[in-house]
Write a structure and sequence with these properties.
365 residues, alpha/beta, Rossmann fold, 2 domains, seven-stranded parallel beta sheet, six-stranded parallel beta sheet, elongated
């Protein structure tokens, strides 16, 4: 197939894959051939990519999972993935390679470095992931989704924002319906894998809300598969209608209809909240080695668009007070929604597209 060829390298979580998908959609519309380089786990998130995008599964591994024997094999699996990527790129040389982070992005970025293919990185979080740290000085362009982002000395970056999916863009700046004497929608999102602590605390907090609020409330709650049954039971005992699933395919619609979102502070979630413009209570993932989710939430908290609750302070009574305060304060909720929308960067994808095109022309500085 003729035309420029973009290889997108991304790891196996929604945080990496959703912005990668947004760039893929935009480049396909501009006539580029796009290949996604990922591992088997990442391929499970590739269902939303345009059907013309070729998905190449590469050998990769992480030190974060598996026992001692599995960890010993990690360098060999990654090396095998790099060799395979070099072979493929020699046969089908890309115009540009863009890495979005995660161990599965190593083979394509390493091969592009060895073959001197123009390459760039997009970091979604306010703190660099390990792979992006390694390659930060080995790329011609670096884009940051969160600003400010902690960068290695000597690395210059552009603030691109985090690309969001088309379904989010279609709802950019959608009018916010503040809490009132009508049905209320609460959305609880724990990231692409769910969050057990939210399943432990949020239903118990909802149960402590006033009867007046509970009578109008409906909840959409994302939970891990092993937690679904007990979360359903907890909401039923509280007398609150709840839809509990392991994954919601229509998060943009649910955010648009929500009066409040309770979520982790993953980069994609924060981007969605700011582009659509919704008040939120953010609970950063405490086990994150670099505490990147606290960095992601910082700008929203400083703008009074979100309330940050550390995991160490997350308990039902205190969370119930925060939820109840927002539901009883429509003007404050409106201000939070407006503040969130001011932080949104709906043209983040276009900014990345421009950087890719400049690299293709040899214009990147």
């Amino acid at each position: 197939m003729a035309g420029p060829h973009l290889v997108i390298a991304a790891g196996g979580t929604g945080g990496h894959m959703f912005p990668a998908q947004a760039l893929a959609e935009a480049m396909v519309r501009k006539g580029w051939r796009v290949t996604l380089s990922t591992d088997a786990r990442g391929a499970r998130y590739a269902g939303g990519f345009p059907h013309v995008v070729e998905v190449r599964e590469v050998g990769s591994a992480t030190f974060a999972r598996g026992g001692a024997a599995a960890k010993l094999l990690v360098p060999f699996r990654i090396a095998g993935g790099v060799i395979a990527a070099v072979w493929r790129m020699r046969r089908d040389r890309p115009t540009v390679v863009v890495g979005f982070g995660g161990y599965p992005s190593i083979p394509a970025l390493a091969a592009a470095t060895l073959l001197r293919v123009p390459r760039m990185i997009h970091e979604q979080n306010g703190v660099l992931g390990l792979v992006n740290q390694v390659f930060a000085r080995r790329v011609e362009a670096f884009a940051c989704g969160t600003w400010p982002t902690e960068l290695p000395a000597g690395v210059n970056a552009s603030h691109s924002g985090n690309p969001v999916r088309q379904a989010v863009l279609e709802r950019a700046g959608a009018p916010y319906i503040p809490p009132g004497d009508y049905p209320l929608s609460l959305v609880v999102i724990g990231g692409s894998q769910g969050a057990r602590i939210l399943s432990d605390v949020v239903p118990a907090a909802v149960a402590r809300l006033s009867d007046k609020v509970k009578a109008r409330l409906r909840v959409a709650h994302q939970a891990r598969e092993e937690d679904v049954e007990r979360v359903v039971a907890a909401y039923a005992e509280a007398g609150v209608p709840a839809e509990v699933k392991t994954f919601f395919n229509d998060v943009p619609r649910r955010f648009t209809e929500a009066q409040l979102v309770i979520a982790r502070a993953g980069a994609s979630t924060v981007a969605d909240l700011t582009v659509i413009g919704r008040p939120s209570i953010l609970i950063p993932y405490a086990a994150a080695i670099r505490d990147e989710q606290t960095a992601n939430a910082r700008s929203l908290v400083e703008a009074e668009a979100a309330i940050l609750v550390p995991e160490s302070a997350l308990e039902p009574e205190a969370l119930a007070k925060q939820i109840g305060l927002i539901f009883r304060s429509p003007k404050a909720a409106e201000r939070m929604a407006a503040a969130a929308a001011k932080l949104g960067i709906p043209d983040a994808t276009e900014r990345l597209v421009k950087m890719v095109e400049e690299l293709a022309k040899g214009e990147a500085r």
